[in-house]
Write a structure and sequence with these properties.
The structure is a homotrimer of 344-residue chains. The first copy, chain A, has 344 residues and is an alpha/beta fold. The first copy, chain A, has 2 domains: 4-88, Udp-n-acetylmuramoylalanyl-d-glutamate--2,6- Diaminopimelate Ligase, Chain: A, domain 1 (3-Layer(aba) Sandwich), CATH 3.40.1390; 98-308, Hexapeptide repeat proteins (UDP N-Acetylglucosamine Acyltransferase, domain 1, 3 Solenoid), CATH 2.160.10. In chain A, 16% of the residues lie in helices and 30% in strands. Chain A has a 12-stranded mixed sheet with strand order 8-11-14-17-20-25-28-31-34-37-39-40, with helices on one face. The longest helix of chain A has 18 residues, at 320-337. The first copy, chain A, starts with a strand and ends in a 7-residue tail after the last helix. Chains in contact: A-B, A-C, B-C. Chains A and C meet through strand 22, strand 23, helix 4 and helix 5 of A and helix 3, helix 4 and helix 5 of C.
Chain lengths: 344, 344, 344
């Protein structure tokens, strides 16, 4: 089990030590269940009393709590928690090369040692970067290229020709490179348009469980570096996303949509095809984007529009029944008091 | 093949026999295709004539039909159908212990005999309760605990540390225990927050195909006893549901949402994170819950509100174009008949 | 690698050759990257200049471009592209019989040679039609029947009793024949209703990745010939679709819904259960069908209604805040100018 001194954890999170920096810490815990071997986290000053009652050996905190525990003062406790917790609970990584005897690996596949290849993994004529872990039942098609230190959870499927950056994490059941939804219609009948492109996944992308990212029709579907996709997201053929985007569960991005950097979409968001979304757009959950977004900011609704505008409309809709009654009353008053309109 | 007398089926459904209770029945069938060896079901008095024409050897019925067939009188024919059909078509259950030779089982896994472990199943350092059936390609992580008589259909994935109650059914492609969607943002970049909790699934839960239930960030995600989840549902980290809930297909429950007992959500329902929903709430399909619900009843809409209120609003919206025309006409009349407003 | 003369490609697409029909073509390419061995596509007259600059050996075009390249004149370039691209990039098809040594095949399964059965495929007492390709990790239950030339991508699961037509394509992670979401409620508790029907998939159907199609409760769920389903679609028990339908990603079709021919549904469409939808209906993305549709045409909204009507309502909603202000102003004017209403 990893242990770490308070001082070295402080250095990891760029914090300042108050108290005993030589104390050994073995893991993270919440304030209530922490013991002397744990480091706890004071997310907010309002937890000051809970922190003082905690048995945690060390605390990460935004202010000096004047307790006996060793303290690490940081500006952003959430970020420090992420870094420390990841230190004690790192993602799996291959250190010793190991290919399970049930794995089926193409003789021309290039396996950069060390790798961990789990049971029933099937690898075509592909290249897998060193340090990567492919868990049970993963299927990797011909021509795939995974860079170093990827973590592919059980039963993920990569079709042929998928390029994956370094340190990419894919959760179970996700499918990358399935055919885009491309047909031409002749009379009533749909004829399949072969999907000849591939998929490119940038460095440090994490993809949730049971997502689908289709290959491009011609040219590639591209997910930008450091994108984070929640479960059950769908990216259609030839979508392109910028860097540092996040998509909550169930986001459905239609074909050829071009998304900028730092775009965040809530759960269940749908986009029409062939849209452009500029940088720094945030779309609230359940919205449907039916038009381009050419200005950064917050959007919401069906169809999506500026968030404040949509909220004002929704307020008006909630008051609409009352307004209608008031309108009918006013109409009657006007009718009763004014002379009748001239007959036509 | 199972056979059963009419009398014993009557006892199973707590019904009263009219006619020959010793008749042997071999299965259920609809009224039209039933033969003398079948039991048919008269769901409603309006099917009285069809029932009289049926060749079914026995009938389950809410009223005495005065036919030659043996009859079982019950108050709730739907419930009786469920029980009798389940008797003739039980869920799979391990009776003789059998582990397929292609299964990969950790040497420290505890397999409580009898079990049926199918081809290519991968089991880590886990405990599987007696009577359970794990079908082809299922993957069970370290530290998982399944109680007795679970049925896990092909290609289900349980990450490490998932606790599953007795008689739980999970359909194919479902993923339990994938990492929650937890990041902290530093400037533009998302940093992963390790997801240190687990998942607890209560007794008698059934989970549809291609669902995802994420592990908790700290502490567990919990699905209460006897919950029923349709296909493609998603439960984010640290959701907690009460008992006897049902979620139709595509429900997306965001993180840390606490749901009461006997809550029913329609298809495609989305909830915001950190909500509380009290007992006995029903949410119509396609709704988006953006706030707590603190009163039992029926809810609907985007955003969700009391159902009747939402329906009245929707009616007003449908009439809005007409209302607008009427308003403009009234405005003109007032303008034409009243003196102009004073100039500023 | 396949090569083909311009003349034979012209015959495939029923086009007219201008120039050298004997030229050999090895593949398709976009105008910019095409070389003399490629055939390019001029989708629109506006690409006339790009076409003239292209190094493509041949072009498929709607008009004579008077270039040195061989030309094939066609009325529908999109359709011609689909046919030519499919010729050079056909779906996989078994030519030489091959069953991977890791496949687990029931001794009473009927495998019509030639077939390609990939690693870790599990086949119960089923019949697989000649020419079909079952890729890694596919699981086929007892009683399934696949007609000729099906392509089943990795990790697809067919439960027992699923009937599949010829040339059906199923993408990874899709689950067919899982239990319908059928329960009866006794007091608060849901009791499972065994799902005794099966699933029938028509000829030439293509099903995207991570879809779910449930088996019928009694009687079968049926997907009509030539239907195309995008990723993450869900069809509940006893749905029936006509021929030549298309469902974009995330469509959720509730139980016992009967859909006509040539129906097209956009992404994220939800239907209530037990609906009927006539032929030639198109439903825009994000709509929720809560009632039968008995007239062909375009529908949209939540709840779905005639598309133009819905768009007019949405326009009125967007103007509602302004209208409310105008209404309040008018009310004040009327109040200030008319005598007060009589007191009660």
């Amino acid at each position: 089990m990893t242990t770490q001194t308070v001082a070295s954890l402080a250095s990891l999170v760029e914090g300042r030590v108050i108290g005993d920096g030589t104390l050994s810490i073995r893991g993270v815990a919440d304030l209530r269940s922490a013991g002397p071997q744990h480091i706890g986290f004071v997310r907010d000053v309002k937890y000051r009393d809970a922190a003082k009652l905690s048995s945690a050996g060390a605390l990460i905190t935004p202010i000096d709590l004047e307790t006996r525990a060793a303290q690490i003062l940081v500006a952003d406790v959430g970020l420090a928690f992420a870094k420390v917790a990841l230190h004690f609970h790192p993602l799996p990584r291959a250190v010793v090369h190991s290919v399970h005897k049930t794995a089926v690996v193409h003789p021309e596949a290039v396996l950069e040692e060390p790798l961990v290849i789990g049971p029933n993994v099937v690898i075509g004529r592909a290249r897998i970067g060193r340090g990567s872990v492919l868990m049970a039942g993963v299927s990797i098609g011909d021509g795939c290229q995974l860079a170093a230190d990827c973590v592919i959870f059980p039963n993920v499927v990569l079709y042929h020709g998928v390029t994956v950056g370094a340190r990419v994490v894919m959760h179970s059941g996700t499918v990358i490179g399935s055919d885009g939804f491309g047909y031409v219609r002749d009379d009533a009948t749909f004829h399949k348009v072969p999907q000849l492109g591939g998929v490119q996944i940038g460095d440090d992308v994490e993809i949730g469980a049971n997502c689908t990212i289709d290959r491009g029709a011609i040219g590639d579907t591209k997910i930008g570096a450091r994108n984070k996709l929640d479960n059950l997201c769908h990216f259609a053929h030839n979508c392109v996303t910028g860097e540092d985007c996040a998509f909550a569960a169930g986001a459905l991005i239609a074909g050829s949509t071009i998304i900028g950097n730092r775009v965040i979409m809530g759960g269940h968001v749908l986009t029409s095809g062939h849209l452009r979304v500029v940088d720094d757009v945030r779309v609230a959950g359940n919205s449907a984007l039916l038009r381009d977004i050419d200005k950064p900011g917050d959007y919401m609704g069906y169809p999506a529009q500026e968030k404040l505008r949509f909220l004002r409309q929704m307020k008006a809709v909630r008051e609409l029944v009352e307004m209608k009654k008031a309108f009918e009353a006013l109409s009657k008053r006007v009718e009763s008091l004014l002379p009748p309109p001239p007959s036509l």
